[in-house]
Amino acid sequence: MRTLMICMLALLAGPALSPSLHAAGTESTPPGRPVDPDYESGKKAIEAQNWKVALDSFNRAATHDPNNADVQNYLGYAWRKSGNLDLAFKHYNEALRLDPKHKGAHEYIGEAYLMVNNLPKAEEHLAQLNKICFFPCEEYRDLKKAVESYKSARGAGK
């Protein structure tokens, strides 16, 4: 029983100790992969909210590694923050095509759907996160909060 408790605590503490959480969501790239300087530059630009540099860096990273779901998710994030939702949806959908369980892409495409007043699609991605996350994860909690805020604002406007 004590071993089971220790294992459960380690599972719960693991995400909190993980360095893979970033401003634009979790990454799905396996550890040990060589670091792409354009990818790293893009992450720093995201943190600085410099969307132009982020887009330039991640576009270069995408030419080096076109099948990287994390790059596509970051491109979607930077396009969304830049105000181009069409390109944001394109890249989020590509991230999800490459990795259907990409938690960050599900969260951010859900938030983008709320921006275009498509609550049912946002709720679809919330349901997907609910299935993907063994315990409620940060991406699920963040999208759930955004959906609840959206519903509350719409209810108050009636």
What's this, in brief?
This protein has 158 residues and is mainly α. It has helices spanning 2-17, 37-47, 51-64, 69-82, 85-98, 103-115, 119-132, 138-156, and strands spanning 21-22, 25-26.
Helical amount? over 70%
**Global outline:** globular
Question: Number of DSSP strands?
Answer: 2
Low-confidence stretches: 1-23
Structural class by sheet pairing and helices? mainly alpha
Characterize the biggest β-sheet: 2 strands, antiparallel
Strand proportion: under 5%
What is the element string, with H for helices and E for strands? HEEHHHHHHH
User: What is the number of independent domains?
Assistant: 2
List the strand order in the largest sheet. 1-2
Instruction: Provide a count of the helices.
Output: 8
